[in-house]
Amino acid sequence: MSSPPSLSFVKLFTDGACRGNPGPGGWACILRHPASGKETELSGGDRETTNNRMELQAVIEGLRKLTRKTRVEVVTDSKYVADGSRTWRHNWKKNGWKRKQGKTLKPVSNVELWQTLDRLLDAHEVSFTVVKGHSGHPENERCDELAVAAAETYR
Prior knowledge:
By secondary structure, the chain is of the alpha/beta class. The chain has a domain at 8-86 and 124-152: Nucleotidyltransferase, domain 5 (2-Layer Sandwich). The chain is built from 4 helices and 7 strands, in the order βββαβαββαβα. It has helices at residues 51-64, 79-94, 111-123, 138-152; strands at residues 8-18, 23-33, 38-49, 70-76, 98-101, 104-107, 125-130. Strands 3-2-1-4-7 form a 5-stranded mixed beta sheet, sandwiched between helices. A two-stranded antiparallel ribbon has the order 5-6. The N and C termini lie far apart (59 Å). 34% of the residues are buried.
């Protein structure tokens, strides 16, 4: 019996931007397949959104491009996305997509994006690396440029 083929590996660099919060926003990502050297840049935006929504959208759009189960390292400057993906979403899901606030449960912000991201994260083997934004990280800086440019198209 042969062993299953090893999963392909990609790095997904992401960033979101917003001109006002809420306001016009943009998201961007770079998908890099180190084995082949292939790299793809994606970006888009929304006329009225928030920075957190754009950070989430960047990861969602990158993962949506994958056509089969893949090992993915997401490199982001968003602790919100990384912590939510690694930890918070599991309890939110158990609680019907609600989060504890004091002694009560409140609806999770951006729930439809978190639910979409949850399905995509479960379809792949995903890890997160958080980098400091605007600190000279080349791919994070490039994603920021693309996200800002996308946001500017809605001004």
